[in-house]
Amino acid sequence: MLGSLFALLLTLSAACAQDPYGSDHNTTSIVGTWSSGTQKVVTGPGFADPAQETFVYPNATGVGYSFSDDGWYELARFRYIANGSHPECIIATVVWAHGNYELTDNGSIILTPIGDGYQQVQSPCTGNSNFMQNYNVTEVYMAWRIFTDVTFGPKLHLFQYDGSAVAPLFRLSDQPNMLPKQKLRNKEVTVVTTTRDGLITTETLLSKRKEKRRDAEPHVQRRGWSSFFW
């Protein structure tokens, strides 16, 4: 009897693993525009201009995703990494990327960029304090769930490879807020630079030409946070 019950449980578990739209995902479709925390970091033209390799800095940290019904995603991320020993050495990163996503049979989600993503890093305590570099990282989340919050509505939870949850995402719209679904940034010609602290960066010629202008721009306002946030 116990053996039969155990076999039934295994069968049910396998069935759930094969269905990425199981009972945990029936609040709403993943298609739409999502943002974490204060919901200030939002994908689309109000965040990044890839052709010019520029960003419009949000007034709060966080992450935003958009998912379309034809398999495209877009990522916007702004975060600080604080240094408790040297508060003046806070590092700020701003990231934009887009590409294709896959909801796999085992319930995971894979985000694969198409190769034109980029990020800006501001690190006042390093030799190269403000620079651009390519960002094309495939993100894999072992699981995802959409629940309903009584106050904010649908919430998207992504779980990392070790099962830990990242900051929940709130749905801003059931439509994706995206830049055009094609390569938007010319990164064919690159310049590799080694900074004085040993950090190797890969930059486009466009970013190199604009480096002096960026250094003249105000740095991100530093805030007294003790950790980084989505």
UniProtKB/TrEMBL annotation:
Keywords: Endoplasmic reticulum, Membrane, Signal, Transmembrane, Transmembrane helix. The keyword Endoplasmic reticulum applies. Belongs to the ROT1 family. It is found in: Endoplasmic reticulum membrane. GO terms for cellular component: endoplasmic reticulum membrane. This is Protein ROT1. Coiled coil: none annotated. It is a single-pass type I membrane protein. InterPro entries: Rot1. Residues 1-17 form the signal peptide. One of its GO terms (biological process) is 'de novo' protein folding. It comes from the Eukaryota. One of its GO terms (molecular function) is unfolded protein binding.
